[in-house]
Design goal:
Elements lengths: L11 H31 L3 H37 L3 H28 L1 H7 L7 H12 L2 H16 L4 H23 L9 H25 L15 H33 L3 H17 L1 H19 L3 H28 L1 H8 L4 H14 L3 H16 L3 H26 L5 H24 L1 H16 L3
Helix pairs in contact: 1-7, 1-10, 1-11, 2-3, 2-5, 2-6, 2-9, 2-10, 2-11, 3-5, 3-6, 4-5, 5-8, 6-8, 7-8, 9-16, 10-14, 11-12, 11-15, 12-14, 12-15, 13-14, 14-17, 15-16, 15-17, 16-17
Protein name: Multidrug-efflux transporter
Organism: Algoriphagus iocasae
InterPro entries: MATE_fam, MATE_MdtK, MdtK-like
C-alpha cells in the first residue's frame, strides 16, 4: 500500500495515530510559545502575566477570524487528495494562500490601531494597561507571518504530510526559548523590553517559519505546488472558501469572544485573580492539545475518505477518535488534578494567593477534559465532511448559551464569587459533549455529505 492510499485503506487506528502524533507535537510546541512567555514574564511579577493574559483572548479572537480559511484549505485539499486530483490540489492551495494573505494584512492593521480601545473595553487596570496595549500592538505585526505559516501547515495536513510542519515549529520554539529572555530582560547592547520583548521574540520566529513554509509550497517538492498564476483570485473559489471558512472562523472567534468576556468578568476581581485565570487558561490550552491533534487528524482523514467515497469508514474514524479523546484526556485531567499546585507554582513562584486560586481552577476543570475532547474530535469530523456549520453551532451553544451565562450567574449571584467562573468550564464541557455526540449518532451529517457530494459533482466543483 503506497503513502497515498494508506489513509483511505487499512487500519484506522494506524492512520489516525500516524497523522495525530506529529500534529499533537506541533500543537504542544506552538503552545510552548505561550508557556515560555508566561514562565519568563512570571519572573517580572504577576502584573506582567496579567497584562499578557488580558491580551491573549483578544489576540485569539483576531486570529480566529482568519484561521477558518486555513481550515477550509485543509478540507478542500484533503478531499482532492482522496480523489487523486493533483491539479486541483495545487490550484485550491494557491487560491487559499492568496486569500489568507490578504485577510492577514487587513487583520494586522485592524489589530494594531485598535489595541488601545480594546484594552480599555475589557477593563485592563492602570497597573497593566500600557503593557497590555504594547504587547498587543507588537503581536499584531506578526499576524501576516503567523497566518502564512498556518496556511502552510493546514495545506500540508490536508495531504497527510504532518511531519514537516512539526519540524519547523520545533526549530522556531527552540529559537523563541533563547530570544524570549534576551528581549524581555536584555543582554549586552540589546535593551530589555519587558512584556513587549516576549511579543518581539514571537514575531521574529513567526517570520522565519512563514518564509520556510512559503518556500516549500513554491518549490512543489512536498506534494503541493503553488504558483503565482493560480493566485489570481476567482470569485467562485473565494465564495467556496468563505462558505467553508466563515463558519469555522465563527466557531473559533465565538470561543475567543467568550474567553474575552470571561476575562472581563475576571478583571472585576483584581489582578491576582486575572493572573490565576491566565495560568489556568494556559494549562487548559496545553491539555486540550491532544484532543485538537486528533480533531485535526480526524478532519484530514475524514476529508480524504469522503473524497474517496468511503462514508462508512469516515464514521468508524469518528467512533475511534471519540473513544481515544475521552479516555486519554480524562486520564491526563486526573493526573493534573493531583499536580495542580505544583504547576501553578512553576509559573508564579512567589505569589501564594495566585498559586492557591490557579490550582483550584485547574482542579475544578480537570475531571471534564475527556468531555471536551469528545466535542473537539466530533467537530473535526463535521469539518472534514464540509459541515463546518455544525461545529460552529455546537461551539456557540457551548460558550454563549451555557458557559458565559453560568459563569456570570455563579460569580455574581452566589457565594462562590470568582470561583463560579471556574465551575462554568466543566458544566459547559458536559453539556456540549452530550449535544455533539447526540447529533453525531443521529447520522444526519452522513446524509448531508452524500447529498452535497452529488451536487458538487453535478456542478463540476466537487
Amino acid at each position: 500500500m503506497n503513502n497515498d492510499q494508506r489513509l483511505v485503506e487499512g487500519s484506522i487506528l494506524k492512520s489516525l495515530t500516524t497523522l495525530a502524533w506529529p500534529i499533537i507535537m506541533a500543537n504542544i510546541l506552538q503552545t510552548a510559545y505561550q508557556l515560555i512567555d508566561t514562565f519568563w514574564l512570571g519572573r517580572l511579577g504577576a502584573n506582567a502575566v496579567a497584562a499578557v493574559s488580558i491580551s491573549f483572548p483578544i489576540l485569539f479572537l483576531v486570529l480566529s477570524l482568519g484561521a477558518g480559511l486555513t481550515l477550509a484549505g485543509t478540507v478542500i485539499v484533503s478531499q482532492y487528495k482522496g480523489a487523486d486530483d493533483q491539479k486541483m490540489i495545487n490550484f485550491s492551495a494557491s487560491q487559499t494562500v492568496m486569500l489568507v494573505l490578504l485577510v492577514s494584512i487587513l487583520l494586522a492593521l485592524v489589530g494594531y490601531f485598535s489595541a488601545n480601545p480594546l484594552m480599555r473595553l475589557i477593563g485592563a487596570g492602570p497597573e497593566i494597561f500600557q503593557d497590555s496595549v504594547t504587547y498587543f500592538q507588537v503581536s499584531s505585526w506578526g499576524f501576516v507571518f503567523l497566518f502564512m505559516f498556518f496556511v502552510f501547515q493546514s495545506l500540508m495536513r490536508g495531504i497527510g504530510d504532518v511531519l514537516l510542519p512539526m519540524y519547523i515549529v520545533l526549530g522556531t520554539v527552540f529559537l523563541n526559548l533563547v530570544l524570549d529572555p534576551l528581549f524581555i530582560f536584555g543582554f549586552g547592547s540589546i535593551p530589555g523590553y519587558g512584556v513587549a520583548g516576549a511579543a518581539i521574540a514571537s514575531v521574529i520566529t513567526q517570520g522565519l517559519s512563514a518564509v520556510a513554509g512559503l518556500m516549500i509550497l513554491f518549490s512543489g517538492k512536498r506534494g503541493i505546488k503553488i504558483n503565482l498564476k493560480d493566485m489570481r483570485l476567482k470569485l467562485d473559489w473565494v465564495k467556496r472558501l468563505f462558505a467553508l471558512g466563515i463558519p469555522a472562523s465563527l466557531e473559533q472567534s465565538s470561543r475567543a469572544a467568550a474567553m474575552t468576556v470571561m476575562v472581563m468578568l475576571v478583571t472585576s476581581f483584581g489582578s491576582s485573580v486575572v493572573a490565576a485565570y491566565g495560568i489556568g487558561a494556559r494549562i487548559l490550552s496545553l491539555v486540550i492539545v491532544p484532543a485538537l491533534g486528533f480533531a485535526i487528524a480526524t478532519t484530514s482523514l475524514v476529508g480524504q475518505n469522503i473524497g474517496a467515497s468511503k462514508i462508512k469508514r469516515a464514521e468508524k474514524i469518528g467512533d475511534l477518535s471519540s473513544k481515544i479523546a475521552f479516555f486519554g484526556l480524562t486520564a491526563i485531567g486526573m493526573l493534573l488534578f493531583f499536580f495542580a499546585e505544583t504547576l501553578t507554582r512553576f509559573f508564579v513562584p512567589n505569589d501564594p494567593q495566585v498559586i492557591q486560586d490557579g490550582a483550584k481552577f485547574i482542579r475544578i476543570m480537570a475531571p471534564s477534559f475527556g468531555l471536551l475532547g469528545v466535542q473537539q474530535v466530533l467537530n473535526g469530523l463535521f469539518n472534514g465532511a464540509r459541515f463546518t456549520q455544525a461545529s460552529m453551532l455546537i461551539s456557540v451553544f457551548s460558550m454563549w448559551v451555557v458557559r458565559f451565562p453560568v459563569a456570570f450567574i455563579l460569580s455574581s449571584k452566589t457565594v462562590l464569587g470568582f470561583e463560579g467562573i471556574w465551575w462554568a468550564f466543566p458544566i459547559s464541557n458536559l453539556i456540549a459533549a452530550i449535544v455533539a455526540f447526540s447529533y453525531y449518532k443521529s447520522g444526519h451529517w452522513k446524509l448531508r455529505t452524500i447529498r452535497n457530494r452529488r451536487l458538487w459533482i453535478e456542478q463540476g466543483i466537487g
